[in-house]
Design goal:
Transferase(Phosphotransferase), domain 1, Phosphorylase Kinase, domain 1, mainly beta, six-stranded antiparallel β-sheet, about 35% strand
Length: about 900
């Protein structure tokens, strides 16, 4: 707090005017121009964020150009080593909220047009301010009576114009709770807006435009006419938000003499679907001007009715820190049906949030993986009726959590082992060793099923050795059996078969002790069973349900929408409890950035636009990238010109084409294609009209890893069976190119060796292996046999050689870039201890041969990394109570 009499540049502090989430506001004396001003001190977190502050300066310059009599002016931005402050026009007089509170509303149930003159004048001036700002492309996004002041001469001034927009910052959505008190300013990190005046699209956390201001204007106009909020504040922000999303204003509260045109204007401003809402505040301004000059209102026209055909059950996602409430109504019915209520849960710390089966079978507790205080992933549990989540000790490095059928324990994967821990905390028990798990399910008969890079595994929940529970269908070209889900009998189960390079999915119904399986037609994602007799699954970013007859073991009826914006596809981040509570992970933003860094970690430049980049591979001359991109429903190989940012498609086959690798001269791309149903290696000449050429016919799946600098070898992994109950092994092979290519085995283990890279001199090969239960970087002599050693510590991914061969770089699971010095090849152990260069905000893609996100420039002085944008917010978990109350009738 600044003491009275202190100075901030040319401004002398006179006294505190107020404080809110966007900072403290002081009355100050401008000693240069001899006038009084308002000085708003920005919060420390705001001022310390260079990116946020730079954006704030740019927008402040734009707002300063807004010269309008109904908008409080911004005079400048004052900066010192201690604080950052806005210098604002000082507006004397009450806020509109205070002005409304002084009106005698109990005497105004049957007002005349003359007595509405003040209200209409205020509304017109607010509309004029909005119209002027919208013409400049500025949206307020926090318009409310507390942000409007009325001077003694009746002049209206809209305050904080654009501040709600400017306060939005990277990661903001996960910082604080929503506030329902309309007198409070929105805090940085809150869903933008104040709940009673927040448009439905703001509540859903999606991008908004000027129609959000039109909604808030409608709320203010309703309040001017009735003296009450259109969506009254409840006991919590959640209660208020539920009204905004699902409940109509009390139209009977409008005075009986309200002109029909004015009623219609309020109604059009408050349509929940922005596509049906009044699109331009300028139209409202014209209506208000004509209404004011139209004379007394007719009392014969009834108040407008509103459509109530809101979509069920598209549950909106609100990115708030701990809890927010969403209510969604159903289709028209003669008798009101109960609302479906949902809330969202954010990760306790900023960082990735992952779920396996988020809600316990009894529906009382959530379990999810989030970053702990030190950034390490761990399991958190949270009671449904509690606002906070608690970490479970002993779960560091956890992934794939799933519940015991009695809701007392959580099973998870960590350090290459399946473990279990009480949901209340306590000692962690190791059940078995296992690697590369893709989902788990704990059945009522004490059996656990695990998805793997191969068949499903089964193991007793009390511990033991895992054995195969399913058999890979070679004829169907199965690759992975994943995401098991036991039915209530503890014997039958759903599971998903992946094929076609991890791009084709089909869900089946299986039974313990039998190899027979029955497809669930139309279900191509993980599936969960609901006690209502339905199967829930994802389709194109939506959660869908369909009836399931347990006795007939068959789907029945038509599928129907449950919720939109749901993560899914390869994973199963949703679950439904016996009590009918549904929880799912909201659809994440998967776009990444390609950024150049120097060895100190300084960001040098960003390449191209944000996109879902996979496996970026730098060309030998450093001018282009080859990468995977999704296009028209299929994964294809593309190139990206680093100078222009222009993308060019290389392949267009219906089958998935992955992981392109440059030839040494940069004129050809090798890649892995699943056009024949299993991974095979192809090449395509660039910059000429050419066909894709199959390099080697193979009976087993192969995935390309590298092309030697001398052009003599292709390095690839090959999937091989290692026996019942074990995932497929991935051994390294080299293909000696020539008139008759010759395959050479490089490794021969029961583990997975992936993402291999040859040293520039061709003497060494570096790769990732899960031999120790986690991926580590190994090096061995090429083509072998010879020396082999682990060079990473605590996990390693994406090995890359320095072009002169003097260093080997890799990334740790947490995103630290490490450098391993390499001595001459004559040394007995040429690889030294790794040292940390810098940390990058990266994420790895799950799956064999994926996750190549690091490149080194040809001169060895820069690193190109695929990073997570700083303003990308992890998706929340959405919890829906009694989802089945909206089942189709």
């Amino acid at each position: 707090m600044l003491p009275t009499g202190s100075r901030l540049g040319a401004f002398e502090i006179v006294g505190l005017l107020g404080a809110g989430g966007m900072g403290e506001v002081y009355r100050a004396r401008d000693t240069t121009l001899q006038r009084e001003v308002a000085v708003k001190i920005l919060p420390d977190a705001f001022a310390a964020d260079a990116e946020r502050l730079a954006r704030f300066r740019r927008e402040a310059q734009l707002l300063a150009a807004l010269n309008h009599p109904n908008i409080a002016a911004i005079h400048g931005l004052e900066e010192s080593t201690r604080v950052r402050a806005l210098v604002l026009e000082l507006v004397e007089g009450p806020t509109l909220a205070e002005w409304i509170a002084t009106r005698q509303w109990h005497e105004r149930r049957d007002v005349s047009m003359t007595s509405l003159a003040d209200e209409l004048a205020i509304a017109r001036q607010i509309a004029e301010a909005l119209d002027a700002a919208h013409e400049r492309g500025i949206v307020h996004r926090d318009l409310k009576p507390a942000n409007v002041k009325i001077s003694s001469d009746g002049r209206v001034k809209v305050l904080d114009f654009g501040l709600a927009k400017m306060q939005e910052a990277p990661g903001a959505a996960a910082a604080t709770q929503l506030r329902s008190d309309p007198a409070l300013h929105t805090t940085a990190g809150m869903v933008l807006g104040t709940v009673p005046y927040m448009s439905p699209e703001q509540a859903r956390g999606v991008a908004v435009d000027r129609r959000a201001d039109v909604w808030a204007f409608g709320c203010i106009l309703y309040e001017l006419l009735t003296g009450r909020q259109a969506f009254p504040s409840g006991e919590t922000a959640s209660d208020t938000l539920a009204r905004v999303l699902a409940v109509e204003p009390d139209w009977s509260a409008l005075p009986a003499s309200t002109p029909p045109r004015l009623r219609a204007l309020v109604e059009r401003c408050l349509r929940k679907d922005p596509r049906q809402r009044l699109r331009d505040i300028g139209d409202a301004l014209l209506d208000l001007q004509e209404i004011a000059s139209a004379g007394p209102a007719s009392r014969t026209e009834p108040a407008p009715s509103r459509r109530r055909d809101y979509l069920w059950p598209a549950v909106a996602v609100v990115g708030i820190a701990t809890v927010g409430v969403i209510a969604v109504t159903g289709r028209p019915a003669e008798e009101p049906r109960p609302s479906v209520v949902a809330f969202t849960v954010e990760a306790p710390q900023r960082g990735p949030l992952a779920v396996g089966q988020p809600v316990s079978p009894d529906g009382r507790t959530l379990a999810f993986v989030a970053a702990g205080a030190d950034g390490t992933p761990m399991i958190f549990t949270r009671s449904i009726d509690s606002p906070t989540a608690q970490p479970l000790s002993g779960t560091a490095g956890a992934s794939e959590p799933f519940w015991s059928p009695d809701s007392q324990h959580v099973a998870f994967i960590a350090d290459g082992r399946l473990k279990r821990v009480s949901a209340e905390g306590g000692a962690v028990q190791v059940i078995c060793s296992v690697a590369d798990v893709f989902g788990g399910s704990w059945g009522s008969q004490g059996v656990i099923l695990l998805g793997t890079r191969g068949p499903l595994l089964r193991v007793a929940a009390s511990g033991g050795e895992p054995v195969a529970a399913t058999t890979l269908d070679v004829q169907a070209r199965d690759q992975y059996h994943t995401e098991p889900e036991f039915l209530p009998d503890g014997v039958s189960f759903f599971y998903t078969v992946r094929s076609g390079g991890n791009a084709i999915f089909q869900t089946y119904l299986g039974t313990l002790g039998s190899d027979e399986r029955q497809p669930l037609t139309g279900v191509r994602s993980a599936a969960r069973y609901s006690a209502t007799g339905h199967v829930l699954f994802t389709r194109d970013g939506s959660l869908v349900a369909q009836g399931f007859d347990v006795d007939r073991r068959a789907l029945v009826g038509e599928s129907f929408l449950v919720a939109e914006g749901v993560a899914g596809g390869r994973d199963a981040p949703f679950a439904v409890s016996r009590s009918g509570t549904l929880a799912y992970l909201a659809l994440p933003d998967q776009r990444t950035e390609l950024v150049w860094f120097d060895p100190a970690g300084t960001r040098l430049a960003t390449v191209g636009p944000r996109d879902v980049y996979l496996n970026p591979e730098l060309s030998p001359d450093g001018e282009r990238l080859a990468l995977d991109l999704n296009g028209e429903g299929s994964v294809d190989a593309w190139t990206l010109d680093l100078a222009s940012g222009r993308k060019s498609r290389v392949t267009s086959d219906a089958g998935a084409d992955y992981s392109p690798i440059w030839s040494p001269n940069g004129r050809t791309l090798g890649f892995t294609s699943y056009r024949a149903g299993r991974g095979q290696i192809y090449r395509r000449d660039l910059d000429v009209v050419a066909e894709d050429i199959l390099i080697q016919e193979a009976g087993l799946e192969q995935q390309l890893s590298d092309w030697s600098k001398d052009g003599r070898y292709l390095l690839y992994l090959q999937l091989e069976s290692v026996g019942e109950g074990r995932p497929l092994a991935a051994d390294l092979w080299a293909l000696a190119l020539g008139d008759t290519p010759v395959p050479i085995r490089v490794t021969n283990t029961t583990f997975a060796e992936v993402n291999a890279r040859l040293s520039p001199d061709g003497q060494w090969v570096a790769y990732e292996s899960n031999e120790l239960g986690r991926l580590e970087i190994y090096v061995q002599a090429f083509p072998g046999p010879g020396r082999r050693q682990v060079v990473s510590v605590g996990g390693g991914r994406t090995a890359r050689w320095k072009p002169d061969g003097t260093e080997l770089f890799y990334l740790t699971p947490s995103g630290d870039l490490m450098a391993v010095p390499v001595a001459s090849s004559g040394e007995a152990s040429p690889f030294g201890a790794p040292t940390r260069l810098f940390h990058a905000n990266v994420e790895f893609t799950q799956g064999l041969g994926l996750g190549r996100i690091l490149n080194v420039s040809p001169d060895g002085r820069r690193f190109l990394l695929r990073v997570v944008p700083a303003d990308r917010v992890p998706p929340p978990i959405v919890v829906v109570h009694d989802w089945a109350t909206r089942l189709p009738e």
